[in-house]
Amino acid sequence: xxxxxxxxxxxxxxxxxxxxxxxxxxxxxxxxxxxxxxxxxxxxxxxxxxxxxxxxxxxxxxxxxxxxxxxxxxxxxxxxxxxxxxxxxxxxxxxxxxxxxxxxxxxxxxxxxxxxxxxxxxxxxxxxxxxxxxxxxxxxxxxxxxxxxxxxxxxxxxxxxxxxxxxxxxxxxxxxxxxxxxxxxxxxxxxxxxxxxxxxxxxxxxxxxxxxxxxxxxxxxxxxxxxxxxxxxxxxxxxxxxxxxxxxxxxxxxxxxxxxxxxxxxxxxxxxxxxxxxxxxxxxxxxxxxxx
Length: 292
Known about the structure:
Blueprint: E1 2-3, H1 6-26, E2 33-39, H2 43-59, E3 62-68, H3 74-86, E4 92-95, H4 105-111, H5 123-131, H6 139-150, E5 159-163, H7 170-178, E6 187-191, H8 198-202, E7 207-210, E8 227-231, E9 235-238, E10 246-249, H9 254-257, E11 261-264, H10 271-287
Parallel strand pairs: 1-11, 2-3, 2-4, 5-6, 5-7, 7-8, 8-11
Antiparallel strand pairs: 9-10
């Protein structure tokens, strides 16, 4: 069983990004600058944004964090988005999700300049990804493709089952896997809460992307021998024995499923670190004006 170590790969990619950034700036390029808008004090979001800020420092990017109370109005937030759109020093930016219920997240995402949308959520970027055009690919799916690519996981001609149909992971992942690329050309089945006979489908899968947000949902009796599994789940589960009082659990019951796998990502240390690195890759693209 091959452990698809996202943390190790993320460190390698950060080193490559740092070198590329230094060369780019030495040739007269502008310093990449990633900004993040965070609304409220959700623990997971605070941790995640903190990782992004630290990663920027490691690769020589400038980073800016704009943190607002969850009482901010939608109009005020849209005004902050406009400021970042107009700020020539900001290469790209993200609005950390989820947002408070009184704010329409779709309206906020639509307000982001697609050329600065390094999270890859704007419909312009989603559409370009669908058509196979240069675009900002949303960070988690991009990170998964890097894992598949760097660990030499063959996707062409394989049956890939994606469990979950979110706009952030499931849907873009299905598009990338079925596209014409080095980590594409697969036959893809997308499963979700209304899928019947899920086990029959997962038992046929050569590759499974588990992205439904239910801890330890995928069990050993649902997969065949030699399967490759990418576990996207990161649910905080209460654990009194843990220092923090909780542990991160993936969507896959790792201890039993890993025994049947050819390769599998751990949680934590799998997809998560690659998501952060993917934001850096998109921000460097933005600095180079590779996506218009």
